[in-house]
Structure prediction request, 133 residues.
Amino acid sequence: MYIWLRAQAYNAFERLIDRVAAPTYSASKAAIHSYTVSLRTQLAGKVEVIELTPPGVQTDLTPGQATRPGYMPLDAFADAVAKQFVQQPTPSEILVDEVQLLRQAEREGRFDETLKTLTERAAKQREEGDRRS
Prediction:
């Protein structure tokens, strides 16, 4: 007799495209992804292992994040995730549309371009934040 369990791993989108200003953080997210894939394989038939990879989401976790341009509104994110969790079978990776651009970057041959764009955008946001301080 099997007891069906569902394990869910939360992982940030940085596992898909490196955050140049935070290489250790990005590496830790890639490691969580690798670990989740391994667990999913080892526990197949006993535990359903699902990885959730959110984009930047507007929350109150850090100052300014709730209104940060380009971040996904929390309600929209929750709705998109819920729609995927009810699918049968449940996808092994929950990826909302907002992370698909990053997820497919390497496969579509635009990893370097996407990395450059995100790095420049992050630098600009840091500069703007420094000016407000």
